[in-house]
Amino acid sequence: MLYAIFSDIHANPQAFDKALADAREHGAERFLCLGDVVGYGSDPRGAVKSVRAACGVTLMGNHDAATAGLIDTWNFRMEARVQVARHAKELADDELEWLRELKYVYRAPGNAFAAAHGTLAHPMDFGYISKESEARMAFAELARKGLRLLFVGHTHFSMWCSIDAGGHIVAERADELKLEKGKMYIVNVGSVGYPRNEPHSVYALYDTHLKVVRWRRLAFDFDGYFKRMEAANAFIAPWLRANAEVARRGGG
């Protein structure tokens, strides 16, 4: 089975539709979204419509939960709070209800893998996995559930980390990962619609037969994105403009 796994669309249906088309061209059979369908971007209704139609499983992200009124935004950046409030007003009642009903964790058939927006331990808290201590907690939870592979998003940084039987952790950013016996893995699929930490639109393909993860890094339409954000009178973060410059120079 070839899974296409997306995360952090952030109200950018144009980027999602491009990633979806790429996944289909590569033969993906099942489509998962790990959350944050809305937030930050200019078109929450378009994003909800596209993800809802394409993905057999969509999980709850922190921006989804906030937009649906399930959590407070006290710890969000100002621009994130503004967009959450705006998106909550723009979405139709049935779209908000769809967000409210999203699950926090997915367990694939045959225990092939688990997925969550931030982490498997206390998924409703939307914790990050960005430090070794956080990775160890996630690996411990993965082991308790009898699994060896976890897919997450949330950090907007595509990478993987593994732990062996001796407790040694390795972390790396790569284009491809071949799973090895005797190890557990956490795979961050990156962000499709909000390139905060790298100048691409990123998602992952996972072949459950070959046990191979491949990241697909696609050109992000910064110019079109900025025009849509400006038309919506939405804040454009300086790191997005910095990543646009990196992309123009062919970096990243």
Question: Strand fraction band?
Answer: 15-25%
Overall geometric form: globular
The side-by-side strand order for the widest beta sheet comes to 3-2-1-11-12-9
Order of helices and strands: EHEHEHHHEEHEEEEEEEHH
Tally of DSSP helical segments: 8
Task: Output the CATH homologous superfamily.
Answer: Metallo-dependent phosphatases
What is the CATH top level name?
Alpha Beta
Indicate the percent of residues in helices. Answer: 25-40%
Distance between the termini: 30 Å
- Spans of at least 5 consecutive residues with low confidence: none
CATH architecture: 4-Layer Sandwich
What does the oligomeric state look like here? single chain
Using the CA coordinates, give the radius of gyration: 17 Å
User: How many beta-strand runs?
Assistant: 12
Sheet with most strands? 6 strands, mixed
Number of discrete domains = 1
How does the helix and strand content classify structurally? alpha/beta
Kindly state the mean pLDDT as a whole number?
Answer: 97
Q: Per CATH, what is the topology?
A: Purple Acid Phosphatase, chain A, domain 2
What are the defining features of this structure?
alpha/beta, Purple Acid Phosphatase, chain A, domain 2, 6-stranded mixed beta sheet
Written account of the structure:
34% of the residues lie in helices and 21% in strands. The chain is α/β, with parallel strands linked by helices. The protein has one domain: 4-Layer Sandwich (Purple Acid Phosphatase, chain A, domain 2). A 6-stranded mixed beta sheet has the order 3-2-1-11-12-9, with helices on one face. It has a 6-stranded mixed beta sheet with strand order 4-5-6-10-7-8, with helices on one face. Helix 6 links the parallel strand 5 and strand 6.
